[in-house]
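Database export, one record per block. Field names are fixed; values are copied verbatim from the stored entry.
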Amino acid sequence: MRVEHIHSCPMWRNEFSRHDCVFVNTGSDTEGIRGLDVARVRAFFSFNYAGTVYPCAVVCWFNVIGGSPDLETGMWVVRPANNANRAPMHTIIHADTIYRAAHLIPIYGNQFVPLDITLHVSYDAFRAYYVNKYVDHHAFEIAS
């Protein structure tokens, strides 16, 4: 059995923040990516209510663009979800709804990537991302 660590911390290895992306089961019976949502974990926390501990996560959502994968890459395309005032859409979810980690690849476009963009800010610097189904066989099953 494989263990997967999903990170969300303000200071990763005393340098930059790290907020991993995940597939979230939001209750759909549909298989694959159509039955899961993509989100970025901003924080983990838990609280105790009536003697029960509830592990939670604060997430920013991504919206799937289009009804099928990109024709050239075969990968689904997502973009950050925003509210009406263009602020990122945050939600608190139960940690048990996180299915597994998701790997997103920025869609770079036709321009050169600015030199000041590092891997630590790449999820904030681009408008759309490919959901990488080639990262491992589990992701391939989900995102195909």
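Remark 1: The chain is about 10% helix and 45% strand.
Remark 2: Residues 137-143 form the longest helix (7 residues).
End of record.
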